[in-house]
Specification:
Two copies of one chain form a homodimer. Chain A has about 190 residues and is mostly helical. Chain A has helices at about 5-15, 25-55, 55-70, 75-80, 85-95, 120-140, 145-175, and strands spanning about 70-75, 100-105, 115. Chain A is globular, with a radius of gyration of 21 Å. The structure holds a DNA duplex (30 and 30 nucleotides).
DNA sequence: GTCCGATCATTTGGAACCAAATTCTATGGC
DNA sequence: GCCATAGAATTTGGTTCCAAATGATCGGAC
């Protein structure tokens, strides 16, 4: 079991390594565990309900977003699902080819594309979501309902902080400096 | 600001959509927010400190793991970083080519490869980690230290639950059924 | 009516990523 | 000593994802 030992061990070691430097330990632990938990949950769900439905995590999230929000413009779906618009184009095409999703042009604005579930897609979610939710309950089984609420609330505040002040913060950090290009992805033309 | 509105709105809509079906709302909200927070945090860090250091999230995590654990065997690093061994091979090679990481064979067991930071890598982490930690503090700014501890503890329990009971659970769910082939990755030969 | 900037979705190019296959090394029987 | 088995990292083949570039369309200004 690498479990408990490795998590807390890692935190202890990190502190030791930083003996001289003053660091924010609680915040470091919180962030590290957010990412670790997200990976664990995603992997568990991919290997249980999603695998047997032959759906990737991202595809399921997209489906879920359209399901709960109803017919939506793609850019909203991408934002809500936490993926880029380019990725959504591919995922939506896959889901469309599987008959779960419908893509129709906006009636008045020709630039927009609207996504909605087909009847098959609706049936699929009615059938699969309860199984998905069952696994959500499984991974949080060590927490009471109240603790789940507390956890969700704490995480919500993290999301809010980034959504509301993230851009401003990044601007302040760079402070006039170039935005620094990414290494991967299509190269700038010039 | 899609912020506050969209998160709680989404949760409300999901509940409405599931009017008839009994679901575990708290658990659903907890899981949804884990993933949402992880994406937000990763994106913020990639676009601030990591971008200007020309490092991907994964590369930084690998560097961090080797930094805090010291010289380590690759399979342990992969596990700790949450990536496959194959991915680590590529990432390690990139980091080696940039002079931050060293790869040396194990002195007695020729099958093993050990990773450690170069002096340049150590300097790099000494310089960049404080900035990274500063952003960890930023994203959790809406939480007190005690709340961070509570958050980390709750997430730790989720990770533990999956690590300790996940495999068993997945086996019980399939219950004899085929493991269901994955869609991506190299195909089996036969 | 036609340019022109803004705002979409889509295409494109490259890296990240995984799991199977492969290759290399160690070790235990014989 | 030799071979089979096991266990390690790496290679390979494939998908997924992002960000820049592109192409389409809208809405004004003139």
């Amino acid at each position: 079991m690498p479990g408990d030992r490795s998590i807390t061990e890692a935190e202890r070691l990190a502190e030791a390594k930083l003996g001289g430097i003053p660091i924010r330990r609680e915040q470091m632990a919180a962030v590290a565990n957010i990412y670790r938990a997200a990976s664990a949950v995603r992997q568990h769900l991919e290997n249980s309900v999603l695998r047997s439905s032959d759906l990737t995590w991202t595809a399921f999230v997209v489906l879920w977003v359209v399901w709960v929000w109803g017919e939506s413009e793609t850019r909203h779906v991408a934002e809500e699902a936490g993926i880029s618009k380019g990725t959504l184009t591919g995922v939506a095409r896959t889901l469309e080819s599987r008959g779960l999703l419908r893509r129709i042009g906006h009636p008045t604005d020709g630039r927009l594309v609207l996504l909605s579930l087909t009847d098959k897609g609706e049936d699929f979610m009615q059938r699969v979501f309860p199984a998905f939710n069952e696994e959500e309950a499984f991974v949080t089984a060590q927490l009471s309902s109240a603790e789940c609420r507390g956890l969700a609330e704490g995480l919500r505040r993290v999301v809010l902080q980034v959504e509301e002040h993230g851009e401003e913060r990044r601007r302040a950090l760079l402070d006039g400096a170039e935005p620094a290009p990414r290494r991967s992805g299509r190269r700038p033309r010039a």
